[in-house]
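ERR on first pass: missing label on line 2. Operator R.T. fixed the label and resubmitted. Corrected input:
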Amino acid sequence: MRSHTGAGYLAIVLLCLLYPFHTASADGNREPASGVPRPVIARGQGETCVADNDFMRRNHMDMLNHQRDETVFKGLRDEPFSLRDCISCHVVEGADGMAVTVSDPKHFCRTCHDYAAVDIDCFQCHASRPESAGQSGAN
Amino acid sequence: MKENNKKPVREESCNTSRRSFLGSLATAAGISLAPGVMLYGIGKPSSAAAATDGASSSVRWGMLIDLSQCDNGCDDCVTACATENGLRGFGRPETDPQWIRKVEMTNPETGHSKSLPVMCQHCEDPPCVDVCPTGASFKRADGIVLVDKHSCIGCRYCMMACPYKARSFVHEALEDQKTHAPRGKGTVESCTLCVHRIDENRQPACVEACSDTGGGAMLFGDLNDPDSEISRRVATYASQQIRADLGLNPGIRYRNL
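pass 2 clean. output:
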């Protein structure tokens, strides 16, 4: 009997812990009732992302890693989860009308990664804006 | 679909017995975890959609450079490479990146001088791959030798192992790299044979520049295909590999060396 009561308490504690994630997953951009500030994420240019938003929020790093190996080792470049496509779709224009680089806090990747305090080193090597933006042809 | 399932579960859990409450809690946790579980469900169809398996070992990319067509003073291939891959110098010739260069050879007895373009020779048995401690230096199935910069630790063993001095180390922090040619400080790089172009069935930038504005000395193609122009030419005319004595079987061959 005693252990049953223990299990009940545990269940209630678990429910309390899980409930916020449960609601957050329904609509990630919504301001929760508690008033916790959320990052302002730049929308992509298309109607939908390559997968649904919940999936992308949780798994974009795995998809990018997978795609990275497919591209480097097999040369498969036209798959949907390429960093190139993320960068060219989620482009953010700066004050000068040009696409911002990752040095700007409004950059698509940075808005969330700054918020979550997750450091990424992708852009030490990769271009952080589409090629047509701000690059002279002969550099 | 997930969202439709959520609401009834939550409402039910408010007014039922402990047993059904615990049951519904388990369901709720399951739903919360569902996006993670769906990773493979969504991931598979997209990768299966690509009909191609990518680089194939039935192909061996190679190049034939006819030095009788290569002018000593011409460096169009070098310029085209720098433009295509976004290579910039910092005024430090000893450490600036160099994927292709013109090497001048002089016969001391006759004084005859000839300059030849030298880049990564894309060996069949690349020493750079042998010595790489992380597996970053690798040979693609179609014979192109590359650096996976994600696993390169910048030890530069490959640079020491390469008999052609074909590799460069990036000493400086870079910005605004080309989308198709990611490069960064602390990694080793070399001629990729313009792998991004090859994957689109295009010619390497140096070959294109050589035929457009240079002497048309460079011929790119599949050495495994007996009907390709390059295979017919290497079968018809004598050609040489640089340092053939090392037995590395480079994919880059020269005529009239």
